[in-house]
Amino acid sequence: MVYDVAVIGCGVIGAATAYELSHFKLNVLVLEAENDVADGTTKANSAIIHAGYDPEPNTEMARLNVEGSKLAKDICKKLDVPYKQCGSLVLAFSDDEIPRLKKLYDNGVANGVPDIRVITGDEARKMEPYLSKEVVAALYALSAAIVNPWDYALAMAETAVVNGVEIKLRSKVTAIKKQGDLFEIHTTSGVYTAKLVVNAAGVHAGEIHEMVAAPSFEMHPTSGQYYLMDRSEGGLAGSVIFQCPTKEGKGVLVAPTVHGNLIVGPDAVPCGEDDVKTTADGLDYVARMGKKSVPSVDLRASIRNFAGVRANTNKDDFIIEVVDGVHGFVDAAGIKSPGLSAAPAIAKKICSLLLAEGIEMPFKDNYKGTRKMKRFKQLSDSEKQALIRENPAYGRVICRCETITEGEILDAIRSPITPCSVDGIKRRCNAGMGRCQGGFCGPRVLDILARELGVSPLDILQDKDGTFILTGQTKKAGEGTADV
Ligand SMILES: Cc1cc2nc3c(=O)[nH]c(=O)nc-3n(C[C@H](O)[C@H](O)[C@H](O)COP(=O)(O)OP(=O)(O)OC[C@H]3O[C@@H](n4cnc5c(N)ncnc54)[C@H](O)[C@@H]3O)c2cc1C
Questions:
Q1: Residue 421 per-residue DSSP state
Q2: Is 88-142+221-310 assigned to CATH 3.90.1640.10?
Q3: Residue 271 DSSP SS3
Q4: DSSP of 113-133, one letter per residue?
Q5: Residues within 6 Å of ligand 1 by CB
Q6: Tens digits of residue pLDDT in 222-255
Q7: Closest CA to 224 of 87, 97, 340
Q8: Positive or negative CA dihedral for 8, 14, 15, 18?
Q9: CB–CB of 469/455 below 8 Å?
């Protein structure tokens, strides 16, 4: 079979591209190296849908951020993704920093960001009572929002699948050969042929680019570490609280999450492509900077630390273009922050580039454009009772911290992209996201997953391939030498 389009990578950019392409009568294939979608940078970031005042005016980043943020609101509504427009503040701690707020304000106006204004420190503290007394002024942006980035990408990927897109997991692209007008794509799951290719491989986009062309940009991966705080700290910030950005990025923020927790981070340290370790020094820095904005934040209430890797390059802007001299091959590289915010607009730009490469894109009839999730704890008592009568599995709470029922776990397992790990379940329905981080419900989720997938509990993974929970080995039981 010859696919019309092959998308390499299923982070938020690959997922948004697949979602956009799924509106058209096209055969679309998505090739993802990992065993689940959105398992790279998309699952480890600040989860902010930025208003759009950070990027320099007249850049693709500025245009796509502002457009993407608008589209995100609509997509989250249609696909039932947790999204909250909570607004954001950028803080100035001295009069010297006020010109930097003004510069951001001017950027925002030039970029077409609605509802932004510079306010005094007292006005900011009225909005955010736990804010430092040292704050002298702030830039307020009403349109900034928070989202669940996993669910956002998953929802778009699932909708693409429901509308006919094929996603092949565990399919790492290892080589690409041009055969006449077609691309022959070699992967760890086989060889696929496509007329057009989109490179959405995140921090690995440089490697994919170099499979078809000479290098035209350098990747400079940069890690960012976080504290995720218990819900007991969730009331300390109602909006996203930034400090003045520096050359390295937007600085350490303190922000609510859509699940009612608080997030503090990130730092910015050069690293390897897949280097998601956290370090004592990095976390100390994050803690210090977080406390600068919100002094009463209690870092002892941390329930998890994590790190994500920015796909920074030697170019200031996103790189979204047809590769020079390679007809039909589109790079979506250097998609650093605000890539999550810009994703749906980036996907539209990719589609317009594909269209210009000569593909026809007639709209599909009967497009299924909505998705509805059952979230037991959000239902009224009478709705809960009705659901349990319909299916008693919704009456068995498996994750006590988050009140997630067996019914929701079964829905996750039977969703359009089948999860194969305990963390895959966590991403889909939040079981294990709470205070105990799966300490209590993990074994029960493992049992349900093994039962439903018809495999041995020994074969169930925590997350990535090779993370077998019960054996602690990196290979399936009985599958050759097992190393710890
Ligand atoms: C610390 C940090 C904070 C951030 N905060 C924000 C924020 O608040 N708001 C915002 O808008 N943006 C933010 N960003 C940026 C945002 O997270 C990224 O722009 C976005 O997630 C990039 O998505 P992606 O799909 O390009 O990359 P990824 O999510 O990394 O996806 C790339 C995919 O390609 C796959 N892949 C790689 N190589 C291959 C191969 N050879 N074959 C097949 N598949 C392959 C990977 O497995 C992966 O799934 C942040 C980033 C970081 C690191």
A1: B
A2: no
A3: coil
A4: -SSEEEEEHHHHHHH-TTS-T
A5: 8-14, 31-34, 39-42, 45-48, 50, 172-173, 200-204, 208, 224, 266, 308-310, 335-341
A6: 999 999 999 999 999 999 999 998 776 788 999 9
A7: 340
A8: negative
A9: no
Where in the sequence numbering do the catalytic residues fall? 50
* Radius of gyration of the chain measured on its C-alpha atoms: 22
Ligand 1, residue 68: give the atom nearest the CA: 11
Confidence of residue 483 (pLDDT cuts 50, 70, 90): very low
Q: Return phi, psi of residue 50, to 5°.
A: -70, 145
If you measure from the C-alpha of residue 15 to the centroid of ligand 1, how many angstroms do you get, rounded to a whole number? 11
What type of residue sits at position 425? I
How far is ligand 1, taken at its centre, from the CA of residue 366, in Å?
Answer: 31
CA 410 to chain centre: 23
pLDDT for 292 equals 96
Residue 479 has pLDDT above 80, yes or no: no
Task: Scan for tokens 């910015």, then name that residue.
Answer: 268
Q: How far apart are CA 288 and CA 183, in angstroms?
A: 50
What pLDDT digit, counting tens, does each position of 113-170 carry?
Answer: 999 999 999 999 999 999 999 999 999 999 999 999 999 999 999 999 999 999 999 9
Asked if 341 contacts 50 with a C-beta cutoff of 8 angstroms, the reply is yes
Q: Whose CA is nearest to atom 37 of ligand 1?
A: 201
* The listed CATH number (3.50.50.60, 2.120.10.30, 1.10.3720.10, 1.20.1730.10) that belongs to domain 1-84+146-219+311-372: 3.50.50.60
Q: What average pLDDT does the segment 37-52 reach?
A: 97
Residue 291 has pLDDT above 50, yes or no: yes
Convert 45-56 into a string of H (helix), E (strand) and C (coil): CCCEECCCCCCC
Cβ atoms of residues 344 and 20 within 8 Å: yes
Return the residue whose CA atom lies nearest to atom 21 of ligand 1. 42
pLDDT of 305 = 96
253-256/262-265 β-pairing: antiparallel
Domain ranges of the chain: 1-84+146-219+311-372, 88-142+221-310, 376-483
Cα dihedral sign, 232-234-237-238: negative
Nearest CA to ligand 1 atom 4: 45
* Cα of 302 from ligand 1 centre, angstroms: 24
Q: Cα 351 vs. chain centroid, distance in angstroms?
A: 21
